[in-house]
Amino acid sequence: MSTCYRRILLILIILGITTPQIAGAASKEEIEIRVDATIDVFNQRVKEGREFLENAKGILVFPNIVKAGFIIGAEFGEGALRIKGKTVDYYRTTGASFGLQVGAQTKSIIIVFLEDEALRKFRTSAGWEAGVDGSIALVGTGTGGSIDSTNVSDPIIAFAFGNKGLMLNLTLEGSKYTRIKK
Questions:
Q1: Strands (E), the chain
Q2: Most buried one in 99, 139, 140, 143, CB count within 10 A?
Q3: What whole-number distance in Å separates Cα of residue 25 and Cα of residue 125?
């Protein structure tokens, strides 16, 4: 067996072993604590973050999305949908990709619903897929951590960040969001 195939097999085994543990590990309370912490980090890094989130129709927060792959990649995370500051549902995000990729990363994502209709469509779907059921515009920050308002006119926008700040060159297309019971 070639080295390339061994690496792919190893990554698939690791993903197969760890994904079920990640899937069942987070309790409602753990998700709530992580969501609060993610929102706090966002508010610290983005100048108008708190006001922006308070004016949203709803926010979907994924504190820790894990993505790993070698040619074939997979990602997984759990989070909460909040409306007016209160959690109304819990969600899982999953995705798969194929192409030139090696390694693993974690990221946090906050998806902001700016219109009631976009939030309604998301909540009534059995499994909502970015790029198919609706598009999500990734928003960066400008100088001094202010929100780049050029993309804020879209009905659904997202902020993705890791340990080193907001992430660019990232796509959410193909990510699937499914309501879960906790």
A1: 58-83, 86-113, 128-129, 137-138, 156-162, 165-166, 176-180
A2: 139
A3: 25
21-39 pLDDT per residue, tens:
444 457 999 999 999 999 9
Task: Give the torsion sign (CA, 160, 165, 166, 171).
Answer: negative
3-state secondary structure of 119: helix
Q: What is the pTM of this model?
A: 0.75
Nearest to 93 by CA among 83, 82, 103, 107: 107
Structure tokens at 16: 């197969």
Q: Supply the pLDDT for residue 19.
A: 46
Q: Among positive and negative, which fits the CA dihedral 14, 15, 19, 20?
A: negative
| Count of structural domains, the chain | 1
Nearest Cα to Cα of residue 173 among 90, 97, 80? 97
88-110 pLDDT per residue, tens: 999 999 887 766 666 777 889 99
> In this predicted structure, what is the pLDDT of residue 181?
87
